[in-house]
Amino acid sequence: MKAKAAILVESCKPLVIEEIEIPKLTFGQVLVKVICSGICGAQINEINAVKGPDKFLPHLLGHEATAEVMEIGEGVTTVKVGDRVVMHWRKGAGIHAPTPKYKSKLGLVNSGWVTTFNEYAIASENRVTTVPDNLDPECGALMGCAVTTAFGVLNNDAQVRIGDSVAVFGSGGVGLSVIQGAKMVSAHPIIAIDIVDNKLEMAKKMGATHTINSKNEDVIVKIKEIVGNNGVDIAIETTGNVKVIETAYEVTSASGKTILVGVPKKGEKPSLYTLPLHFEKVLKGTEGGRTVPDRDIPKYIRLIDAGKLDLKQLVTDRYDFDKINDAIADLQAQKIVGRCMINISK
Ligand SMILES: [Zn+2]
Q1: d(CA 297, CA 93)
Q2: Distance of CA 64 from the midpoint of ligand 1 (Å)
Q3: What pLDDT, in 10s, does the model give residues 194-211?
Q4: What's the CA-to-centroid distance between 162 and ligand 1, angstroms?
Q5: Which CATH class is domain 2-143+311-343?
Q6: Thinking of the domain 148-288, which architecture would CATH place it in?
């Protein structure tokens, strides 16, 4: 069986759309048909090789999608053929299977435990979680990374309490989801910081009480105007820009927490005054919000069903699979206000 795939052949270049050959499943693997996939900063970073030279080229990409199970390999028990599933990069229940390799005209194409920029994908059992058939596929895709990361950061890393002041640096998919989650747990105020006015408008829709455009406003001065000189209880940094990391840390109160979601480019190092860390101040990086997909995704679906969580509004742009390079270019040019969604199969 063959499938269309968008393959990263060369770093910093558009993806190459080419057919891949689907191999036979081995122990713990699941073959899925990908319905729709989001694109997140991690894929942009992979394409741009920000962590250094890419040893795995050519390879597949993508880690948040909704899909349908077509076939299961030996040993698989948590999903069955016909199941609607969320594809995620955090490990969930089930077997941690070997990664597949796909034959193609370009030679062997490498793949991780989950990839979503291909019509058919072989995923490791522990990277797929069954969801109800009637779950909106776009909302499902967002639970593969953006939303689960954001809510995990709030619950597990920041441990936000009612009335905590929260500053969110960067209003991309994760930042906007953090804002929505912070509103749900009654944080106040919720301050969104970005350099694009449209994104700040979106942040307001998601629940930000204040917005700061750091291009033309002094973030530290503005935040202190809003919450007082002590700074915010929680600062969540989603951009990975070292200057922004420094600012997020600086505006965090002496007993507050700075949580890093964004990862700086290789070789870039923030400069921080560390003495407060010996007292109550906390600085930590999150690993995907320490989300446990099979535990957390069903909870969030309950909130969607109850009308308490609206993920659909996060999706602002949609592209056909053949236009995936346009989506990537628009993302890099900051043209996408919320999350973009790729229709992988029609
Ligand atoms: Zn992601």
Answers
A1: 12
A2: 7
A3: 999 999 999 999 999 999
A4: 27
A5: alpha beta
A6: 3-Layer(aba) Sandwich (3.40)
